[in-house]
Each structure stands twice: as structure tokens, then as C-alpha cells.
Amino acid sequence: MPACHKVHDMLDTVSKKRGIRAIAPSFRERRDEIKDLADSWMMNDDKVFKGLENLHNSLLSEMRYIYFNLEEETLKAQNEFNSFINQTMVDLEAIQEQIRVLESIKRSV
After folding, report:
1. Helix segments in the chain, DSSP class H
2. Whether 84 contacts 43, CB under 8 Å
3. Distance CA 22, CA 20 (A)
4. Where are the domains of the chain?
5. How far apart are CA 5 and CA 52, in angstroms?
6. What is the pLDDT along the chain (109 residues), one digit of tens a residue?
7. Alpha carbons 8 and 41: distance in angstroms, whole number
8. For residue 20, with 0-12 CB atoms within 10 Å meaning exposed, 13-18 middle and 19 or more buried, which class applies?
9. Coil, helix or strand for 19?
10. Whole-angstrom distance, CA of residue 91 vs CA of residue 37
11. How far apart (Å, rounded) are the C-alpha atoms in residues 98 and 64?
């Protein structure tokens, strides 16, 4: 199936032929009808193209948003986990120190 702009080009080429009116007297009317159809085709083709382009851009934008937010949430979770581990290590060291103190007291008793 030819593209709509090719139909326009073919119609223009045929319209410029000198003998076309003699061969097909109603050519001008048919040409105008076909041009109207081709114009409608082009406008609708453009609407479909723009609609698909908008859908593509919207999906891409949403996917990027999700990807970056997942990455941020992952980093946030990793940072919180690291903070928890670091604090836990400090707490464990404090507990170990308390155990050493208790063992020292136990030995002296």
C-alpha cells in the first residue's frame, strides 16, 4: 500500500499531463475526491503517529520514573540497612564490654 504522500505526488504528476483531460473528462472531480481522501488519510495517519509517539513517550517516562524510584528506594533501603548494621555493631561492642566487666566481677568474687 503506498504512503499517502506518494498518492499526492502521483496525483500531481498525473494532473500535469496534458492529455489526461481528453482521456478522462471527469478526472478533475475524481482527482479532487482522491486528494480529499489522501488529505484525510494524511491527517489521520499523523494523528495515529502522534498518538503512538505520545504513548511511547509516556510509557518511557513512566518506566524511567519507576526505574529511578526503585533505584532510590533500593539505595535508601541499603543506607538504612547499613545504618542499622553499624548501630548494631556499636551496640554489640557495648554489650561485649559489659560482658567483660561482668566476667571480671565474677572472677573477683
Report:
1. 4-15, 20-23, 27-108
2. no
3. 5
4. 4-77
5. 19
6. 456 667 767 777 776 766 666 566 676 777 778 777 777 777 777 788 888 888 888 888 888 887 777 777 788 878 888 888 888 898 888 888 888 888 888 777 6
7. 11
8. middle
9. coil
10. 79
11. 50
Packing angle, helices 27-108 and 4-15, rounded to 10: 160
Cα distances (Å, whole numbers) of residue 49 to 23, 45, 53, 57: 38, 6, 6, 12
Q: Classify residue 31 by burial, with Cβ atoms within 10 Å: 0-12, 13-18, 19+.
A: middle
Amino acid identity for residue 86 in this structure: N
Q: Which three cell numbers stand for residue 24?
A: 478522462
The rounded distance, in Å, linking the Cα atoms of 96 and 98 is 5
Burial class (CB in 10 A: 0-12, 13-18, 19+), 38: buried
